[in-house]
């Protein structure tokens, strides 16, 4: 707002020609644009400028309960997007795995009528045989926290069960395969929990919207990928909770190791559909650039659902091939698989890896959001994924 105004009005001229649906969508888009446009994260600045804009009047787009409901929905989604942005913006010395678990628990206590929280510590994860996730967490002095929020609709009547799984690396040094050289982005690796931020941002919005007929499990295996004497070495073999063994030929392909156990856990909740989000590969940024996320799924039906949700949210996704023949690159001589298969088709190989940990009876879709998690111009998080997830859950609700 270069005009420094505290209030603004937006008028739609000649509104008679426009359909009621158009007016609703336009009012919602204007409201979302205003709220997200003036949001600035000043928590870590010594002088914080408050946004001057206090109110926006939307004129010529109708009034009444339909418009009010649409604006409330937009406001709820925006609060989730802002929460997601602030989680990603918080540096790794502020947002540890433990603090991420606290933030998620706060969402559950705010909406305790519909959301419950369960936080597992390292010992409990060990009992569930999450060797893949714990291998990544082993080097850090900040202990891992496995976070599980569950949304149940107010009347308890559930027709569809969904899971949303987010990658939660609060910092990623690369481990012994340390990130080095220009373009390695090590200084930005606080954003490696962008998937989990989208998950908890969506949980916050859904706690307010309370969609009927749908149960949603929000799952994050949070930890740091650090370097120490207790850390995982290149060449180590870890065993995931579904019994599959993994030769870790690259400790910087760690997100997929944490997601492996999170996906097994999600499928064990008896869900029909799972969507996972992760800042997983630099290869996806090379392929699709900074503002488009890649989606990978064997299910055409689920791809259609998520793409339809993204058309409403305005976030950009592109479906990528899940080329089974590439799996040859992930074969290990000593374990069931390696965790990395070289540079070519890197984001496809990562998706094929995740597929090994999803129950065949469950529809699954993977979102690689390494590009759109961050806005380089603003040097800040985008909150990407939240609005599409909320829309997807809504489309599955009765």
UniProtKB/TrEMBL annotation:
**What do the Gene Ontology cellular component annotations say?**
cytoplasm
**Which UniProt keywords are present, listed alphabetically?**
Aminopeptidase, Hydrolase, Metal-binding, Protease
Stated role: Presumably involved in the processing and regular turnover of intracellular proteins. Catalyzes the removal of unsubstituted N-terminal amino acids from various peptides.
Keyword Hydrolase present in the record's keywords: the answer is: yes
**Domain Cytosol aminopeptidase positions:** 250-257
Recorded GO molecular functions are: manganese ion binding; metalloaminopeptidase activity
**InterPro entries per UniProt:** Leucine_aapep/pepB, Macro_dom-like, Peptidase_M17_C
Gene Ontology biological-process entries: proteolysis
Which protein are we looking at? Cytosol aminopeptidase domain-containing protein
Work out whether the entry's keyword set contains Protease: yes
Instruction: Report the CDD domains cross-referenced here.
Output: Peptidase_M17
User: What family, per the record?
Assistant: Belongs to the peptidase M17 family.
Name the catalysed reactions. Answer: Release of an N-terminal amino acid, Xaa-|-Yaa-, in which Xaa is preferably Leu, but may be other amino acids including Pro although not Arg or Lys, and Yaa may be Pro. Amino acid amides and methyl esters are also readily hydrolyzed, but rates on arylamides are exceedingly low; Release of N-terminal proline from a peptide
Oligomeric form and interacting partners: Homohexamer (dimer of homotrimers).
PANTHER family given in the database record: CYTOSOL AMINOPEPTIDASE, LEUCINE AMINOPEPTIDASE-RELATED
């Amino acid at each position: 707002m270069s005009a420094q105004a505290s209030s603004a009005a937006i008028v739609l001229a000649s509104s008679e020609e426009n359909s009621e649906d158009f007016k609703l969508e336009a009012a919602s888009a204007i409201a979302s644009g205003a709220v997200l446009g003036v949001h600035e994260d000043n928590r870590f600045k010594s002088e914080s400028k408050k946004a001057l804009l206090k109110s926006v009047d939307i004129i010529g787009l109708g009034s009444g309960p339909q418009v009010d409901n649409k604006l409330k929905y937009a406001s709820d989604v925006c609060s989730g997007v802002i929460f997601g942005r602030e989680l990603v913006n918080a540096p790794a010395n502020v947002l540890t795995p433990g603090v991420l678990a606290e933030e998620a628990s706060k969402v559950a206590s705010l909406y305790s009528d519909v959301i419950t929280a369960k936080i597992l510590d390292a010992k409990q994860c060990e009992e569930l045989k999450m060797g893949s996730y714990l291998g990544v967490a082993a080097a850090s002095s900040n202990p891992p926290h496995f976070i599980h929020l569950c949304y149940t609709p107010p009347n308890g009547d559930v027709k569809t069960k969904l899971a949303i799984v987010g990658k939660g690396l609060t910092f990623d040094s690369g481990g012994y395969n340390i990130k080095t050289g220009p373009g390695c982005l090590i200084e930005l690796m606080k954003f490696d929990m962008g998937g989990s931020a989208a998950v908890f941002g969506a949980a916050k919005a859904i706690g307010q919207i309370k969609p009927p007929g749908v149960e949603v499990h929000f799952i994050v295996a949070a930890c740091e990928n650090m370097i120490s004497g207790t850390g995982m070495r290149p060449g180590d073999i870890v065993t995931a909770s579904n019994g599959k063994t993994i030769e870790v030929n690259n400790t910087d392909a760690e997100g997929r190791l944490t997601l492996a156990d999170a996906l097994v856990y999600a499928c064990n909740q008896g869900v029909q559909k799972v969507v996972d989000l992760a800042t997983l590969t630099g290869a996806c940024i090379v392929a699709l650039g900074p503002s488009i996320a890649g989606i990978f799924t064997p299910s055409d039906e689920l791809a259609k659902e998520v793409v339809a949700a993204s058309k409403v949210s305005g976030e950009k996704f592109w479906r990528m091939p899940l080329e089974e023949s590439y799996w040859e690159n992930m074969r290990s001589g000593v374990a069931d698989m390696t965790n990395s298969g070289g540079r070519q088709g890197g984001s496809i190989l990562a998706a094929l890896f995740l597929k090994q940990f999803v129950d065949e009876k469950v529809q699954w879709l993977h979102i690689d959001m390494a590009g759109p998690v961050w806005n380089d111009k603003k040097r800040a998080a985008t909150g990407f994924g939240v609005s599409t997830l909320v829309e997807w859950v809504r489309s599955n609700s009765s």
